[in-house]
């Protein structure tokens, strides 16, 4: 496999002689083969010229359709109004994703969405309800029911992205991203703008049992945020939004990202909306385009900085409230949906969001290592150091320390050590 025939430990000269080849010129192209492919090239050249003429004639006769064709092959996705998408207050972020997909079904004609037999759970059915499944000899729909075959589904989306003309997205449970790894790694290598929709993002999938609970998956996926592609960009954009409004911004970022694949990580359970300091949460969440931003600021310098992403952000906000009320501390809270994007910002911005001379506490529903690079050497992270617990998510949050009260206690203990 890794050697030329001459070095593979066997004498192939007799094989070459038996097929009429010269052992001293093993890569000789026989005259009859040369003549055959010369004829093939001529036929294909004539065919290609005729196809170009046919296309030119079609364009002249169908100017509007030709314009649509050209638009399908462009990469401009900036003319969508995601602020108009209505999302449920304090709802699951997968629900917000469903609302965005419903909007895109009405407004992005060349989008194809696939699901691994989970449309009603990963909420890609928001798209499906506006179209119908692709079927044999019927391509009038725009939804691919891929069945329980996540790897195949992702590979098909890669193929669509390579062909061009359509925008491909596929959904499944986040824990099943394991099955898709070879395909989305190829997406990253080939710089394909496939959108991966992953829901049921943490151990809070308690009722489904321990096998369906992603714990180390976020760390695995985010490794590709640390690798550059040959264009010098992060090879993967990973976004785990803090609430329904930030989910709309995450979808906007995913659609406008035509340089790499994007992974959108959504919650199954309801998530408390992050309060807006400016009475415009959607405007606030635009800062997510920098990877991380302050969702709760303080006057002057903070006494402590709390960071997290996904549903942990609202828990940090609850903990910050207790720290302020009980101990009069100034607490800055940061949402960091994309660690890779954040580390791409300049030093001044990074130091503003996560000051290096302040105590920094991180909260993650995954492995603590996800946030180690962000909190720094003096920081502390509360995360999962074990897996396999199965119970209703509110019970798990309480038992595993994902409450405002535990954030308060953990930060108080941490500040004594800092």
Write up this protein.
By secondary structure, this protein is an alpha/beta fold. The protein contains 17 helices and eleven strands. A six-stranded parallel sheet has the order 2-1-3-4-6-5, with helices on both faces. Helix 4 crosses helix 10, helix 7 runs parallel beside helix 8 and helix 12 crosses helix 17.
Concise overview:
With 418 residues, the chain is of the alpha/beta class.
Number of helical segments with 4 or more residues:
17
Structural class: alpha/beta
Helix content: 40-55%
Low-confidence stretches: none
Beta-strand content: 5-15%
Could you give the order of the helices and strands? HHHHEHHEHEHEHEHEHEEHEHHEHEHH
Arithmetic mean of pLDDT? 95
Alpha-carbon distance between the termini? 56 Å
- Measured on Cα atoms, how large is the radius of gyration? 26 Å
Number of strands: 11
Gross morphology is globular
- In this structure, how is the largest beta sheet organized? 6 strands, parallel
Biggest sheet: strands side by side, in what order?
Answer: 2-1-3-4-6-5
Spell out the key features of this protein.
11 strands, 17 helices, six-stranded parallel beta sheet, five-stranded mixed beta sheet, alpha/beta, 418 residues
Explain the layout of strands and helices.
Layout: H1 13-18, H2 31-61, H3 63-72, H4 93-107, E1 111-115, H5 119-122, H6 125-128, E2 143-145, H7 150-163, E3 167-173, H8 177-190, E4 195-199, H9 217-222, E5 237-239, H10 244-256, E6 262-265, H11 281-285, E7 293-296, E8 304-308, H12 312-327, E9 331-335, H13 339-343, H14 347-353, E10 360-363, H15 369-375, E11 380-382, H16 393-400, H17 404-417
Parallel strand pairs: 1-2, 1-3, 3-4, 4-6, 5-6, 8-9, 8-10, 10-11
Antiparallel strand pairs: 7-9
Helix pairs in contact: 2-3, 4-10, 7-8, 12-17
């Amino acid at each position: 496999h890794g050697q030329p025939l001459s070095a593979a430990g066997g004498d192939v000269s007799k094989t070459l002689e038996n097929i009429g080849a010269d052992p001293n010129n093993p890569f000789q192209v026989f005259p009859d083969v040369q003549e055959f492919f010369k004829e093939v090239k001529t036929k294909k050249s004539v065919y290609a010229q005729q196809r170009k003429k046919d296309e030119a004639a079609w364009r002249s006769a169908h100017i509007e359709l030709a314009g649509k064709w050209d638009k399908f092959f462009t990469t401009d996705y900036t003319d969508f109004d995601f602020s108009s998408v209505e999302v449920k207050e304090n709802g699951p972020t997968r629900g917000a994703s469903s609302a965005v997909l419903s909007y895109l079904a009405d407004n992005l004609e060349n989008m194809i969405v696939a699901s691994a037999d989970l449309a009603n759970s990963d909420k890609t059915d928001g798209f499906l309800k506006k179209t119908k499944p692709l079927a044999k000899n019927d391509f009038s729909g725009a939804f691919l029911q891929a069945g329980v075959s996540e790897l195949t589904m992702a590979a098909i989306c890669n193929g669509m992205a390579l062909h061009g003309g359509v925008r491909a997205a596929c959904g499944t449970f986040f824990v099943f991203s394991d099955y898709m790894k070879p395909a989305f790694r190829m997406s990253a290598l080939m710089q394909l703008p496939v959108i991966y929709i992953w829901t049921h993002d943490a151990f809070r999938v308690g009722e489904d049992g321990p096998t369906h609970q992603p714990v180390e998956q976020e760390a695995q996926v985010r490794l590709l945020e640390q690798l550059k592609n040959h264009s010098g960009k992060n090879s993967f954009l990973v976004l785990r939004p803090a609430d329904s409004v930030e989910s709309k911004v995450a979808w906007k970022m995913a659609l406008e990202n035509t340089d790499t694949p994007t992974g959108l990580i959504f919650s199954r359970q309801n998530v408390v909306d992050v309060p807006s300091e400016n009475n415009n949460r959607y405007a606030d969440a635009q800062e997510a385009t920098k990877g991380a931003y302050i969702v709760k600021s303080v006057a002057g310098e903070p006494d402590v900085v709390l960071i997290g992403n996904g549903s942990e952000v609202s828990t940090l906000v609850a903990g910050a409230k207790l720290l302020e009320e009980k101990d009069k501390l100034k607490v800055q809270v940061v949402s960091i949906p994309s660690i890779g994007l954040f580390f791409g910002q300049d030093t001044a911005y990074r130091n503003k969001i996560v000051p290096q001379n302040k105590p920094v506490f991180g909260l993650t529903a995954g492995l603590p290592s996800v946030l180690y690079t962000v909190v720094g050497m003096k920081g502390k992270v509360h995360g999962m150091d074990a897996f396999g617990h199965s119970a209703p998510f509110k019970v798990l949050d309480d038992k595993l320390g994902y409450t405002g009260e535990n954030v308060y206690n953990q930060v108080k203990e941490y500040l004594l050590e800092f």
